[in-house]
């Protein structure tokens, strides 16, 4: 019953234009944030985590098993997503957990990734880490034996796609990045390790995505050369904000979800309408999703949505996060 009530309230807020909220701006020229000749910006990002995000998840008797389930679903869905991206020429920014770059890892003196400082025990709205070592679930093997914790094959698949996707950074091991939880040594070590592993693929990481929306350590991001981060305080159609002179904050507009209470048609209608609102109000639309959601979304909803985007390419600047931020930097002389 409560799920049905929440679903109805969500539909009502959407109908009343409250979710996502269109942010009003006074004395702002939309051309400061939307390249000419387009009417809106559209960015899609995917939180590419496999098992790393669910190891300490709240609400499950066996969160590790849940983590493995999500990882396997992601592996099944990602080829479908990439095929659709190629078909409709739509890029995605893949917010990638750095451990997925690895082909293997191992324990030394009973410690794995001993070069990294450990995040202390903590909890947030999504997970509880109150005992043991943060890397206790690391299988310390090769990717073929534990494909839930390593993904060099998928990284290569993304980089080999026809569309030029972006690989972003989601920390090395999906840590809580809040200032009161994560010491500077922890975040700095994780990000440097991500950079090191990405470099082996010829990649330079620029776009950052805080795991669990645990926003913090912005100075560390700037100091290590990142140019943007995504927030999810509210669902917003708005414009980016600049922090610390050079770090751009992009507000999330809506997460792709697959709700049992909604029909396939309503899912399609909802996301299409959000894009139409972005065009009408001349705003930036940032969709994001987890590749581990129900495969039905990628079979029945995403194709319709991508076709709609393709039909409106004359009005939509469709880009990866770093492509858009590069444009912002040039326009605003950062």
Poorly predicted regions: none
**pLDDT averaged over residues:** 96
Structural category: alpha/beta
Per CATH, which architecture? Alpha-Beta Barrel
Tell me the fraction of residues in β-strands, as a range: 15-25%
Helix and strand string, N-terminal first? HEEHEEEEEHEHEHEEEEEHEHEH
Query: Multimeric state of these chains?
Result: single chain
Straight-line N-to-C gap: 51 Å
Sum this structure up briefly.
The protein is an alpha/beta fold and 334 residues long. It has eight helices and 16 strands.
Give an overview of the whole structure.
- It contains 8 helices and 16 strands.
- With 334 residues, the chain is α/β, with parallel strands linked by helices.
- The strands form 5 sheets. Strands 2, 3, 8, 14, 15 and 16 form a 6-stranded parallel β-sheet that branches. The chain has a 4-stranded mixed β-sheet with strand order 9-10-13-12. Strands 1-11 form a two-stranded parallel ribbon.
- Helix 2 runs parallel beside helix 7 and helix 6 packs parallel to helix 7 (295-311).
- The mean pLDDT is 96.
Q: Characteristics of this structure?
A:
334 residues; alpha/beta; TIM Barrel; 6-stranded parallel β-sheet; 4-stranded mixed β-sheet; 35% helix
Write the layout of secondary structure elements.
Blueprint: H1 2-15, E1 21-22, E2 40-48, H2 63-88, E3 93-96, E4 107-108, E5 111-112, E6 122-123, E7 128-129, H3 152-159, E8 166-169, H4 184-199, E9 207-208, H5 218-223, E10 228-231, E11 236-237, E12 241-243, E13 247-251, E14 254-255, H6 264-281, E15 284-289, H7 295-311, E16 316-318, H8 321-331
Parallel strand pairs: 1-11, 2-3, 2-15, 2-16, 3-8, 9-10, 10-13, 14-15
Antiparallel strand pairs: 4-5, 6-7, 12-13
Helix pairs in contact: 2-7, 6-7
